[in-house]
Amino acid sequence: MYDLIVIGSGPAGLMGAIAAARGGLRVLVLERMPKVGLKLLATGGGRCNLCNTLPAHAFMEAFGRHGRFMQPALRAMGSEPLRAFFRDRGVETCEEEDKVFPTTGNAASILDVLLKECRKFHVEIRTNSEVTALPKEGGVKTAEGIVPSKAVLLATGGKGYSALGGSSSGYGLALRAGHKIIDPIPADVPLLIQERWVKELTGIALPGVNLRVGLKGFPKAGTNGDLLFTHQGISGPVVLNSSGAIAEKLQTQESVPLVINLAPKLGAWQRDGGNKSIANALRPWLPSALAKTLCELCGIDPELPASKAGGKTEELLTRQITAAHITATGTEGFNKAIVTRGGIDLKGVNPDTLESKLQPGLYLAGEALNLDGPCGGFNLQWAFASGHLAGSSIVEALRET
Ligand SMILES: Cc1cc2nc3c(=O)[nH]c(=O)nc-3n(C[C@H](O)[C@H](O)[C@H](O)COP(=O)(O)OP(=O)(O)OC[C@H]3O[C@@H](n4cnc5c(N)ncnc54)[C@H](O)[C@@H]3O)c2cc1C
User: Fold this and answer.
1) Which atom of ligand 1 is nearest to the CA of 170?
2) CATH number given to 2-185+341-400
3) Cβ(339) – ligand 1 distance below 6 Å
4) 242-273, pLDDT tens digit by residue?
5) pLDDT value of position 309
C-alpha cells in the first residue's frame, strides 16, 4: 500500500512527491502522458523561468483577487528557498530583471534535479497511466484497476497545450469528488484581432508598447510590454498578460475594443524629419512596414517628405500611432494558452494544508486550482510552492494517524 499517490508529473506533482518521500512516505506518481514533466521542459522557451524576485505581496497581487490563497504555500517555499533547493542540488539560478532562470539555460536541468531527488527517495513513477476516478474509500482508479493509498495529491495542471499534457481530466476527477469547477478559459494566450491591417504585419515585434482595454472596469493606464503581430492578431508579453481578463469578457460579448500606443516614446517626427519621407522620419520608433501601414490607414502618402506633412496630417498620424484602435474577437484557444484561468474552486480547499474540504485525504496543488498568474515565473513558483506544501502537509497528517 502506498502512503501517497500523486496524479501528474508536473512541477507541482514532482515537488509534492519529493516533500512526501523525504518525509519518509512511500510515494507513487502516475502520469497519463508517455513522458514526465513535458510542460516543464517547454517553459520559458525551453529555458524555464522558474520564479521571480517579487516580494510575496506583489507576487500574490499579480494573481488578482484570489492571490492571498497562496500565502501559506509561499511561506513554505518562496522564491529564495526554491532557488536554494536547486542550488543545493547543483543547479544555480540567475536573474534577468526580476525573472529567475537556471544558469544552465535549460529547463531539462530543472527536471533532472526533480527526477534525481525522486530516485534518491525511492519515488516510483509510472507513465502512460491515467487516473480515471478517485474512489471514496481512497486510492485511485486507472485502466489497471484500483491502486490503494492513504492519501492522494491531485496535481493535474491546466487545459493548455494538450501535446504537453494539458487536459480537463483533473477537473473531472475533482468534480466527481464534490469540488466546484470554475469554467476554465484560456489565459496568457495570443488574441485574434478583427482588423485586417494587423494580420498583414505578421512577424513585426515592437518593444515597450502600451495596451489598454477600452471598457469600464479595466485599468485606464493599461499595461506596458513587448508586442508581436501574428498571422491572426497579436501576441507578446503585453498581450499575454492582459489576455485572461479579455478572454473572460469575450465569454459574454462578441468583441473587446483595445487601444494601443505603438510608440510611447514617439518624438517630434514631423519637425525633425525634414526632407525624409514620413516612413523614414518615423524609423527611430516604428519599423517602416508598420509606419507605411499606419499612413495608409490615415490616407497619407508614406513617401511624402515629413516637412510637407501639415498640422492636420501630423495630428492624424500621431493619433493613429499613439492610440490605434483594434478589436479582439477571440483567443487562439487552449492549445496556445500558457495557463488556464478557472479550475478547481479554492473555496473547497484548505490553504494551510491544500487538503480538500470535501474529501479527506485528497490534496490539490498547482495550476489545476483556480489561480493563474501572468508570464514571468509566477505559475511555476505557485506550482512548486503548492506541491511542496501539499507534500509536507501529507507527511504531517499521516504522522498523526
Ligand atoms: C509553452 C509554455 C511555457 C511556459 N513557460 C512558463 C515559464 O517560463 N514560467 C512559468 O512560471 N510558467 C510557465 N508556463 C506555465 C507552467 O508551465 C504551468 O503553470 C505549470 O507547469 C503547472 O504545473 P502543474 O504541475 O500544476 O501542472 P503541469 O505541469 O501541467 O503537469 C500536470 C501533469 O498532470 C498530468 N495529468 C493530467 N491529468 C492526469 C490524469 N488524470 N492522470 C495522470 N496524469 C494526469 C499531465 O499530463 C501533466 O503532465 C508555461 C506553460 C507553457 C504551456
Assistant:
1) 38
2) 3.50.50.60
3) yes
4) 999 999 999 999 999 999 999 999 999 988 98
5) 84
